[in-house]
Write a structure and sequence with these properties.
Elements (H helix, E strand, L loop, with lengths): L1 E6 L2 H11 L7 E5 L9 E2 L8 H10 L3 E6 L2 H5 L2 H7 L4 E2 L3 H8 L1 H10 L7 E4 L2 H9 L5 E5 L8 E4 L2 H13 L10 E5 L4 E10 L3 E9 L2 E3 L3 E4 L4 E4 L6 H22 L4 E11 L2 E8 L6 H5 L7 H10 L14 E8 L13 E2 L7 E4 L2 E4 L2 E4 L3 E8 L3 H12 L2 E2 L3 E2 L9
The structure holds adenosine monophosphate and glycine.
Adenosine monophosphate binds next to strand 7, strand 8 and strand 16.
């Protein structure tokens, strides 16, 4: 089967790499793709993930595509899967009504409240004055979030009222994330250990993958602004069998029941962003897709054919598949452009020395210019390795990271230490 992947980050490179291992995958295409994906798939950099007409045009002229994998949040939230289905194309990813679990934080918080899924206490505001007053009179630290999508950056952890006033101002008054901030969620700060659980869903059953952990802050020691993710490891040692049982009972089953009751058919990947607090396991957020960089440490551990799983999700036959995992942990370190998640330069030449044989180099923001590899985004590359322990995997990853150079390179040195 020939497969089209929508997206062009490290996650999409990891998906393409995993699909490529399937004996049943024929040609791989990517829209827009990147320089790494281009090594294994035919990329169309002139069509963007949000160019729905361009994507339909591509599919019309490529009747050989049997499955379109929609990986990023924006096209999912905007209903690309609904559009593809309405034209008779098979697609892996949730329809718009299901992707709202991620695309609207107000919707997902209300969903959790309604179905008794543990989460931080919260209030929703669409009025600036009310939001400011509530924030100023709340206990801090306080968490303030844009309702809509904001490339992983619309969340403010505020230590004091000065910071929370600034957050409300940026979101609601200055519209830093556009209409995403016209409604905001203000919620209780949860402290504890963060855990990500990605899960396949076919609309009937939800099957969790191996756990992982992302490092979202830009600097070592979890300091600085939130990014899309600076590195990850899998599995998370905090995700013990007891915690897994708590997840299944209190969160996964209730999510499945809630979706069923709401009449929402979720086909694709549900991302459970969890916090292990002293008061139990709570959901920080849902995403409606594979996480990035989590995918770069989870998919390398998948032993089962990813195409078979994706097809089963689309066809509603996931209960027929036994999903198997490699025991060895994986670690991924993201190499970012200096300045990210703020302003950064693009077009800087990248040199990659000889890497150890089993190291995986997933491209995120890269582009080719002639024979030169150039930076083309905030997160540039992800270096992943497996090891007999997380520490061993860390050692291999960092040894190889040093062989990759570009001007103003920035990466965290402590990925996998705090666990
Ligand atoms: P989100 O986009 O909702 O995942 O938030 C991004 C990151 O902000 C999360 O991964 C957490 O690290 C942090 N965060 C979000 N909400 C909370 C909360 N209520 N308490 C503590 N940290 C939070
Ligand atoms: N790594 C967090 C996310 O994909 O949203």
């Amino acid at each position: 089967m020939n497969v089209l992947i929508i997206g062009g980050g490290g996650r999409e490179h990891a998906i393409a790499w995993s699909l490529k291992k399937s004996p049943n995958v024929g040609k791989l295409y990517a829209i827009p793709g990147n320089a790494g994906i281009a090594q294994i798939a035919k990329c169309y950099p002139d069509i963007k993930a949000m160019d729905f007409e361009g994507i339909l045009g591509f599919l019309k002229s490529h009747k050989d595509v049997g499955l379109t994998v929609v990986a990023p949040d924006d096209p999912l939230g905007a209903g690309l899967v609904d559009l593809l289905n309405s034209r008779g194309y098979r697609a892996f990813g949730p329809v718009k009504a299901a992707a709202a679990l991620e695309a609207s934080k107000a919707f997902s918080k209300e969903f959790m409240k309604k179905y008794g899924i543990p989460t931080a206490k919260y209030e929703v505001f669409d009025d600036y004055i009310k939001a400011v007053n509530y924030a100023l009179s709340s206990k801090h630290p306080l968490v303030i979030k844009a309702d809509g999508l904001a490339v992983g950056k619309g969340v403010y952890i505020c230590e004091n009222t000065k910071e929370s006033k600034k957050a409300v101002d940026e979101l609601m008054r200055d519209k830093k994330f556009g209409e995403s901030g016209s409604k905001i969620v203000i919620e209780e700060f949860l402290s504890g250990e963060e855990i990500t659980v990605l899960a396949f869903s076919d609309g009937n059953v939800i099957v969790p993958m191996e756990s992982s952990r992302d490092h979202k802050r830009v600097f070592d020691g979890d300091i600085g602004p939130n990014t899309g993710g600076m590195g990850a490891f899998s599995p998370s040692p905090a995700y013990t069998p007891d915690v897994a049982a708590e997840f299944t009972e209190n969160i996964m089953k209730k999510t499945a029941e809630g979706l069923k009751t709401e009449g929402i058919v979720f086909k694709g990947v549900i991302y459970f962003g969890l916090m292990l607090t002293s008061g139990g396991l709570k959901v920080i957020e849902y995403n409606a897709r594979f996480g990035d960089p989590e995918t770069q440490v989870v998919l390398p551990r998948l032993k089962t054919d990813l195409l078979d799983i994706m097809n089963a999700c689309v066809d509603g036959t996931l209960d027929k598949i036994k999903i198997k995992w490699e025991k060895k942990p994986c670690v991924c370190v993201v190499l970012a452009s200096g300045g990210y998640p703020g302003e950064f330069e693009k077009g800087l030449p990248i040199t990659v020395g000889k890497l150890d044989e089993k190291v995986l180099l997933f491209h995120a923001g890269t582009a080719k210019s002639g024979r030169n590899l150039l930076t083309n985004g905030g997160r540039v590359l992800g270096v992943t390795a497996a090891g007999s322990s997380i520490d061993k995997a860390r050692e291999i990853v960092y040894r190889n990271v040093e062989r990759i150079k570009f001007d103003k390179i920035h990466y965290r040195k402590d990925i996998g230490i705090d666990r």
